[in-house]
Amino acid sequence: xxxxxxxxxxxxxxxxxxxxxxxxxxxxxxxxxxxxxxxxxxxxxxxxxxxxxxxxxxxxxxxxxxxxxxxxxxxxxxxxxxxxxxxxxxxxxxx
Length: 95
Known about the structure:
Elements: E1 7-11, E2 21-26, E3 33-34, E4 39-45, E5 48-53, E6 58-63, E7 70-71, E8 76-81
Antiparallel strand pairs: 1-8, 2-4, 2-7, 3-6, 4-5, 6-8
Protein name: Branched-chain alpha-keto acid dehydrogenase subunit E2
Pfam families: Biotin_lipoyl
Domain Lipoyl-binding: 9-79
């Protein structure tokens, strides 16, 4: 059995804009179990906030950008552990 954890890096979206983006707020903490479609962060473009949704299921391993930072499409925002035990009794995991 392979005990190594698969890690997926999650990058800032390409919302087809040349305007700078700001990571307004994180909506997840390290250790949170997340599913596809969960709101992970609020990202601002021209002062308007948009939700950034999770593209994969996993456990938040590390947030690599602080709230208030300027970001560009493709910047690594956080990493997810994909092979951890995804059972969290405080929050159901959607399939």
